Amino acid sequence: MCAQSLKMNAEFGIDELPILAKSDVVVIGAGPAGSSAAVAAAAGGVTVLMLDKKEQIGLPVQCAEYVPLSLAAEVPVPAECIAQRVEGFITYIHREQVAQTRAPGYILNRDVFDLYLAERAVRAGVKLFTKAKAVAVTDQGVLINQQGKLSMVKAGVVIGSEGPKSVVAQAIHCPPQVLAYAKQITVKLRKKSQWAQIYFSPSIPGGYAWLFPKNDLANVGVSIDLSLGGKVATALAEFQQYLIKEGVISEEVIRTTGGAIPIGGPRMMQQKNLMLVGDAAGHTHAISGEGIFPAIVAGKIAGSLAVDSIRTGDVNVLKQYPLQCFTRFGEFVKRGFERKVEYNSNWGKMEFSVLVRKTWFAFPEYFES
Question: Which one, of 165, 178, 180, lies nearest residue 276 by Cα?
């Protein structure tokens, strides 16, 4: 028994806990990454259990909800999951338009989309436990807390897709993730638009502000790298007032949300019978924060490899996972992280508009070596 398991055993009395279930594959977190992994594993004929700490999958929404059109090639996106299609995004620096980039995509109803993916997994044969929080991963399996009651789930392969504070990442001994922080409001849009809007300003260090149209509504938000200064709430309030003054949005706030965005690049993604997917693995673009597409792709890869490992009885099969992920989306994530490092190292040293052009993918400079 490893030192971590000994510590857990002393703290929780693991040997005395009831065994809630046994499954070939246990997926922690029923977001897009987790549900995609669960479906892929179930399609291979192994038993799959998916855990989620929430009572209702998809809520609260912690996402700006913009995804590329290419997502539909990876997973079905039913019409009810789509709030609006957009043609691309307009980039502003110092509130002046500097680029218009065609990048067709969807603004999702993320709560509907996440619930659809989880229900799709259940239809594929996945057993779903909600209100089941993973507390730790040990040699014995996954320790979970269901409304104050501790129990164990035995697992052959464990896939962690529960975000930046992943207990699977802790079991792999990953260091804490570097995070940006975002806050978003949903408001009424005074005039419909087919284009998303991105705003860069020195008052939003290490991040940007956005307006993503949802027909008569819009998601309006700000993300900030706190290591460079600034306050998320202050930046959002200033951006909101600017849009109100310009007649773009109304004052009424319909919904407020927020969350953390991994910006430290990919982590160690696999160890023994454990794999990380999505935000838990750092599968996000460190500048834009885009993560849904790579999360779904990584989930499918992880689920398929879990099947191979279970069927062959060879845990070493899972070592293919990082390379397969890199082949599919590694350059996208890697370049985003490199540009984030460049942005931070030149913060306050380079003229702001030049810095944005070098680190934002609306401009040719972003793609230069």
Answer: 165
